[in-house]
Structures are given as C-alpha cells and as structure tokens.
Amino acid sequence: MKHDGRTTRTRVEQTPDGRRLVVSRAVSAPARVAWDVLCSVDDWPEWGPSVSAVRGVDGRIEAGSEGEVRVAGVWVPFTIETCDDFRWTWRVAGIPATGHRVSAVGVDRCEVAFEIPLAASPYAVVCAVALRRIERLATATGRRSKQGVERHTGEKDGDEHDDEDQSESGP
Description:
Number of strands: 9
Distance between the termini: 22 Å
Structural class: alpha+beta
Order of helices and strands: EEHHEEEEEEEHHH
Shape: globular
Strand content: 35-45%
C-alpha cells in the first residue's frame, strides 16, 4: 500500500461485483476492529453521513439481514447480500449499493474501502467523509480494552500486542 493513514485513495478496479469505483483509506487499527465498526449497525449513523438511523437489525449485520436505514428523513429498506471474509454488500431499496471491505495491512493496520457502482460515482465524496469517521471510531475502539473485539468475534488478540497498541496510539 502506497498511501498513508491520512490519505483517501480513489480508483476503478474489478471487484466480485464487477468494475467499481473504490474509495479507500489506511487505518491505524487492527482489521477486526475496523470490521466491527462496519458491521455494527449502532455505528452506522456515526460514520455514515447519509444514514441518520437504522432499524430492524440489532447489533451486527450478517448475510440475509434485513432492515431499514433513514436517509434524508425517509426510511429505506435494505438487505445484506454478502457478509464474510471482511467484505459485505447490500441492496438498498432493491438496488445494488456500496460494497464495504477491510484488508489487513499488518497486525495493527488495515485498509478500509468502499466499492461504489460506477453510475453512483459522485457518492465517492460521501464515502471519503465516512472513511475519516471510520478511522476515528476504529482508532478509539483500538485504544479501549479489546473486550468489544472479543465480544463480537470470540477471539482475543495476542497479549504481546496490548501494550504496543496503547503506547503507539496517537491523537
């Protein structure tokens, strides 16, 4: 990866759903922490500039989850199509929408990316804002006890990294 954590990168690439505009950002947090932020519906209004509320799903999404998001004051139905291997996709109002993915770039660093249908390319601006918010949430989560990651994944990070995570966390 050539970009740093303060840079958002935009490019066209081939995804499992075809050619998409991909907007990504390096985040100084473990991939599982960033993934947790993406999958927790409670966090969606905090990082999604266009989402003010979510209903119909409690906790975390999974493939087949159905609910509604409030966008511009209107409740719009959604269905999570895929949700595995650190990538999830959805349909909003029956239309294929943005894909979301996290790729590990090291123990305590990852890349978070949105895959935008080419016809919706102006949405890249909204995604760039969302990536900065996700970075803030994932970094804050990474500074806290790893209980949140353990609660959602059932796994613990190696104890040898706990002190490192806290001492290297910056503002």
